[in-house]
Amino acid sequence: MCIAFSSQDHKQRLGLIFPVKVLFFLLSLGPLCLEAADWVEISSDYESSIYYDRDSLHREGDMVEVVLLWDFPDVQLTRRPVKPYLSATRLTRYRCGAGGRANVETTLYRDNMARGEITEVYRTPDAEINFEWVNPEAPGGESMRRVCAAAIQ
In Å, how far from its chain's centre is CA 61? Predict the structure, then answer.
């Protein structure tokens, strides 16, 4: 059974389809916009590149909270059960004056630059968060200096 439409009906239906397709396209971009971060490179070598998210900087007195990103050229593996990942973000708190760091949460991603499927999430319970001293000459010291300086600006 076929239904014949006049050319006017056909134009009206086509007129409705285009805006609906545009709407679905825009909605499909939504997650990309939510995941966007303003990554600033801290350091890079053959093993990994380290960034901080400028938009995540939050300063309260001497304490700065930030999301750091490790991006790896080669696949990394978790402990058992073994799961692959290419990047990791870490919510980190720094005590800038005292030179301390506490890791709050780490998220591992299948793809580079904190994209793709989440492989694993490790969260430190608030009662167990401890600050450790950061060697100013080590890569962690460079991260702390860069983040603390950015939070002051």
Answer: 25
